């Protein structure tokens, strides 16, 4: 906590873009680190990665209603803006701007810019985001979808999630106009989707994938870890341990994905977890493979108590 | 044809963006006029409109496979690049750049960048664009969709069309980085969709809607008019005449859309046309109205011979 550089806090889209343009005219390069706040050391590692590539750092803090379905509870998503600012002031090299907009779906028409924040029960609610359910008539209706990459893994249980992520990231790119943007590889599918979107839509932003940050005991850092009791937290270590074991098994010649997956599922469920998915997929296409014969990533989502935890390990053969 | 300013022809994405950035650094403003080539005076009017707003003009000429379904025939889409260049050299004030990329869906992987150019028969073919059908595996898969505005009018018979338009326009915006872009109001739905997309995704591009250009006899200018025999051309005037008559009727107090529509459909079909749709819709939401009590647009698509012609008239009450 040596430095105490105070970031500029910007809440207005236009002011944000003007800042970026004034910096670009001076020949400065800008990296964007998009977050939903409630920052932990995983986020800080993204900022450190940003510093390796660009001269100026913009951290966005915005809980995006477009990626929550109305059956998910956006109102209880954890936030701590002052705590976040404090953490950002301690980052080595500092942060230049915190972009913290009120509502990125407010287009100046009061009637149309309402975003639903209450949870709605039922299956149908899962197919409508908080943005759509609150918008009557001429509201937000443009969505960016990465068709295939978004269908599997987390896309199966959260059909609107990646559409919401790709859309808000497009908005942020158009507002901040960064040269670089940093995404964590813990959210492996999200990172690949953003890379593909940037390529397919010709965004002039270079995407940097940042390695997973782990606690000392190996648990992948996540805002959701606060939901774990200390007992659950201990049990959740089974995810990372099983992934490391799988990688080790491959190195020893076990390449059948069926066996590798079954072994991991067994271990996590024996520890008391509930596996949402455990899949070994191609690193680029995210399509499931039967044998590990090319670079793959072993992706896991599992529930421990109230927390749905994600983790993964790349296996390069 | 007083001037003979020769435009710079750019075929490479990166070179295009570099040109724009070098101009922006000099404080110049840029307007983009996106076209599919085979230029006529309607296009020239878009360029004239561009000159009123920006210092530099980029005209893109690109037949976008992403907006053709495989049941439509992209290979016979008319083109005349040299003729287009000649016309552009005659434009008052000139054109600075013609951006004429080979393939905007070529991402450097030979296997994945094939675009299907043959027509495929059958209903299923209508649900896949020429980009998707030619891409095996890791090809282009990111699409921008303006959900509601794209569903009605032309969206009903061409379910992929506006998705393809919004996507290629996003790509062009990210490559050219213009300050302005000009779209013709003849394609009214397209214009509204682009406006909404720009707002919803926070593109920093100002969209200019350019009024419909008509031949001396009132026929809306279109690349498709070349498909009309002289007899069909004469009969096709019924569209514009009926639209003007409808506007006149409204001014005289007839506000029932049912009657206005029936009267137009009758006139066009008596002239030998086949009406695809004739709808009176809100200018912003493009939702059908029952009575003309607020600004509407009367949109028509009708077949004469092999040509599907579009026309419309705004009625501001």
From TrEMBL, chains A, B:
UniProt GO cellular component terms: cytosol
Query: Where does the UniProt entry say this protein principally localizes?
Result: cytoplasm
Q: Describe the reaction catalysed, as an equation.
A: (R)-pantoate + beta-alanine + ATP = (R)-pantothenate + AMP + diphosphate + H(+)
Listed under GO biological process in this entry are: pantothenate biosynthetic process
Q: Name one GO molecular function term.
A: ATP binding
EC class name: ligase
Compartments, as annotated in UniProt: Cytoplasm
- Presence of keyword Cytoplasm: yes
Q: Does the keyword Iron apply?
A: no
Q: In which pathway does it act?
A: Cofactor biosynthesis; (R)-pantothenate biosynthesis; (R)-pantothenate from (R)-pantoate and beta-alanine: step 1/1
EC no.? 6.3.2.1
- Record's keyword terms, sorted: ATP-binding, Cytoplasm, Ligase, Nucleotide-binding, Pantothenate biosynthesis
A Pfam family this protein belongs to?
A: Pantoate_ligase
Query: Sorted alphabetically, which HAMAP family does this protein's record hold?
Result: PanC (MF_00158)
The annotated subunit structure for this chain is:
Homodimer.
UniProt xrefs under NCBIfam families:
panC
Q: Which family does it belong to?
A: Belongs to the pantothenate synthetase family.
Name of the protein this chain belongs to:
Pantoate--beta-alanine ligase
